[in-house]
Amino acid sequence: MFNEIKENVKKQHPLVHCITNYVTVNDVANMILAVDGSPIMADEIKEAADITSITHALVINIGTLNQTKVESMIAAGKKANELHHPVILDPVGAGASPYRNEITERLLKEVQFTVIKGNISEIKCIAQKTNTTSGVDANDADLVNESNIDEVIAFAKKLSQQTGAVIAITGPIDIICDKQHTYLIKNGHPIMSRITGTGCMLAGVIAVYAAANQEKPLEATACAIAMMGVAGELANDKMNVQKSGTASFRTYLIDAMSMMDMDTLTGGMKVEIQ
Questions:
Q1: Residues 70, 74, 77, 83: is their CA dihedral positive or negative?
Q2: CA angle 107, 166, 105 (to 5 degrees)
Q3: Which of 18, 207, 208, 261 is the Cys-Cys partner for 37 at CB 3.0 to 4.6 Å?
């Protein structure tokens, strides 16, 4: 299903500009390298647009905001739009504070995003102006399950139509939509939430895959998310065999992504297309 998507990444080795948060920046860089991309992290306003001009995709992550970084995000986002490069928004903690909500709204007004990726509470904040986020985590009351999945798909498709972006909702069931089509992915493991930065790392992977597959952002995003879910399962298996802990899990996760081939992905992914 995703063979061409992965092959394009291997051929192109996209360079990704990340304006991300300082909690997870090193892990994001290493994960991008693990999937055959190349990272550059630059959030200084004096160079943000220039750096974007030499890269193939941009990640904007609002996890650790400050006013200077926001202006860099806007400048880089506009430059990426001008060059028709994919732009990924990771609205970390959207709904956690009025300031964070204000910046999210500003970004959505001033930058055209290719993919908006977040947990269900973050996406609901964008789509419905709700504030149910628990810090940077999804609120348990918002989580997607079999009883509410059709409702969530409907609002994700509507948000895609409104924003022009692929909407990726991560959780126990990952939902990836454009205005017409939906991928449901049921991979991953709960332990992925016990280390910092799996979502931030995923945004970097999505950027790599979107950069190499600009005509297929939905499929590129679904491939990246399926890979991450399968890698989480493999990393958990290895952690259990080695009787190690969550710090080792982080390493095993990056290892699994760096070693992911089509046989491993095809054999492990649980993907449904609607």
A1: negative
A2: 20
A3: 208
